[in-house]
């Protein structure tokens, strides 16, 4: 979109600003390839005893579903934005689900730990009473629970997990460095909630397993949402940091990469990324996530707009009320999605969005600057995300496979899938498609509900493993009787 050709376009300064932003945010093929190369190295380093920037957490999920899993399970999905309780009935490659959702209040994200565990236990309690009737002491059989805890956790066992560090803006004291399961179970006990925690699960692990339940070609599970991450299956023989356990080398182990932590000097961070990092509760951490995940996309955009306004050369939003735009994290990725979705030539939907949400009335050249900025941020996120998918595929030697993806950015951000697919094509040097309907060798497809159905399946797989006497990675066998 050529700003200078617009009627009334003020001056070349806006055009120069667009050029500057294009230079900062565009990632060419050569850079994508370099980033991917270092990403592969970091995946490998993360599996070593010394470690690297990416945690590469073994999850103790050691088998894929056969498709014959059955039974009734609860899943508690504690992600970045909502809390969800699901009752999942597995029925041989099929399932029924009933669920309730609660918004996680902002104060809870930076509050005290007890309030968090109480909130989780209260929601479970409420759900069980609604769907199973009043909870009376000790009269109910305990329902097996998969707890989807979507933060980096070290797991020596599947039924425990030590929080490495909070992500996605959470900052609750007294949890990092601790096993979260006993804290959560204490809150359950206090309320007499009749559940037994079978597995602590990352959302990516759940996504991988739920997707593999329905589609055997699924090799990678990804979340592109408030946060970003992926899981895949490694052979225990390729995990030097588990060598001391002498597990058979061909035993599968799902690895929760925690790739949001990827950091390398090849990442083309802009001054806006640096500001986000500095102002975050955990500066220096989750470098990759802060460039691509939904929590940050709107904030990157906001910082650019504030910067352009304060630049005396550009006069962007001159004379307008900037008070709303000055508010950190006031714009989420759905705001950018709406800008990119505006089908009107004169960007009238974007104008309305700015007027209603920000009390700002941009002129046409400013609207075009806004649109281009959103495109640049969204495109960069999709292209960087593709580096992670390419890196796992290269590491595992997958020339073709399916990748199950979930999360608000993947589901709702316009063009995210097409931009990601284009970047994968560039990184992996795929030849041009012969026919537009042709599948790409590596396809990123919408996943099954990993945090609900996936967590239930993992609980089922774990119970089966215990019944078979395979006790690797089980801390409390008594829980499973
Ligand atoms: C967390 C991961 C999670 C991802 C997607 C990241 O911030 O560290 O554990 O999988 O968000 O929810």
From TrEMBL:
Q: Which reaction(s) are listed as its catalytic activity?
A: a D-hexose + ATP = a D-hexose 6-phosphate + ADP + H(+); D-fructose + ATP = D-fructose 6-phosphate + ADP + H(+)
Q: Which pathway, metabolic or otherwise, does it act in?
A: Carbohydrate degradation; glycolysis; D-glyceraldehyde 3-phosphate and glycerone phosphate from D-glucose: step 1/4; Carbohydrate metabolism; hexose metabolism
InterPro entries for this protein:
ATPase_NBD, Hexokinase, Hexokinase_BS, Hexokinase_C, Hexokinase_N
Q: Where is the Hexokinase C-terminal domain?
A: 219-461
> Which superkingdom, per the lineage?
Eukaryota
Question: What is one GO cellular-component annotation here?
Answer: mitochondrion
What terms describe the molecular function in GO for this protein? ATP binding; D-glucose binding; fructokinase activity; glucokinase activity; mannokinase activity
Q: What is its EC number?
A: 2.7.1.-
UniProt family annotation: Belongs to the hexokinase family.
Q: What is this protein called?
A: Phosphotransferase
Source organism: Staphylotrichum longicolle
Specify the taxonomic lineage: Eukaryota, Fungi, Dikarya, Ascomycota, Pezizomycotina
């Amino acid at each position: 979109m050529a700003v200078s050709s617009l009627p009334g376009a003020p001056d070349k300064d806006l055009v120069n600003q667009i050029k500057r932003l294009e230079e900062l945010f565009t990632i060419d093929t050569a850079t994508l390839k370099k980033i991917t190369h270092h990403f592969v190295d970091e995946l490998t380093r993360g599996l070593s005893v010394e470690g690297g920037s990416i945690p590469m957490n073994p999850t103790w999920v050691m088998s894929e579903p056969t498709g014959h899993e059955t039974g009734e399970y609860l899943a508690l999905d504690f992600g970045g934005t909502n809390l969800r309780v699901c009752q999942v009935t597995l029925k041989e490659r099929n399932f029924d689900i009933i669920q309730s959702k609660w918004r996680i209040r902002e104060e809870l994200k930076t509050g005290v730990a007890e309030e968090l565990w109480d909130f989780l236990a209260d929601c479970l309690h409420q759900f069980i009473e609604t769907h199973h009737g009043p909870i009376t002491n000790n009269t109910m059989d305990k329902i097996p629970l998969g707890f989807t805890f979507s933060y980096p956790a070290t797991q020596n066992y599947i039924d425990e997990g030590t929080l490495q560090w909070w992500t996605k803006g959470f900052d609750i004291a007294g949890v990092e460095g601790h096993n979260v399961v006993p804290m959560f179970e204490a809150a359950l006990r206090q309320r007499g909630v009749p559940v037994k925690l079978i597995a602590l699960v990352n959302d990516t692990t759940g996504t991988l397993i739920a997707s593999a339940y329905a589609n055997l070609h699924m090799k990678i599970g990804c979340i592109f949402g408030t946060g970003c991450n992926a899981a895949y299956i490694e052979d225990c023989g390729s995990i030097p940091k588990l060598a001391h356990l002498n597990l058979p080398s061909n035993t599968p182990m799902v690895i929760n990469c925690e790739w949001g932590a990827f950091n390398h000097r090849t990442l083309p961070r802009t001054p806006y990324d640096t500001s986000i990092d500095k102002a975050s509760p955990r500066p220096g951490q989750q470098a990759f996530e802060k460039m691509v995940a939904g929590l940050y996309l709107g904030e990157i955009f906001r910082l650019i707009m504030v910067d352009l306004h304060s630049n005396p050369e550009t006069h962007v939003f001159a004379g307008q009320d900037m008070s709303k735009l000055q508010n950190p994290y006031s714009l989420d990725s759905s705001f950018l999605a709406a800008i990119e979705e505006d089908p009107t030539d004169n960007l009238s939907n974007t104008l309305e969005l700015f007027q209603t949400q920000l009390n700002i009335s941009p002129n046409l050249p400013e609207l075009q600057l806004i649109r281009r900025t959103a495109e640049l941020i969204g495109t960069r996120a999709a292209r960087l995300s593709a580096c992670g998918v390419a890196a796992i595929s290269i590491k595992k030697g997958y020339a073709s496979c399916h990748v199950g993806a979930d999360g608000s950015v993947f589901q709702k951000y316009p063009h995210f899938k097409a931009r990601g697919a284009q970047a994968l094509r560039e990184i992996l040097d795929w030849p041009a498609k012969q026919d537009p309907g042709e599948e790409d060798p590596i396809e990123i497809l919408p996943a099954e509900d990993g945090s609900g159905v996936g967590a239930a399946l993992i609980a089922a797989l774990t119970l089966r493993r215990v019944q078979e006497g395979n006790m690797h990675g089980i801390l409390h066998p008594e829980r499973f009787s």
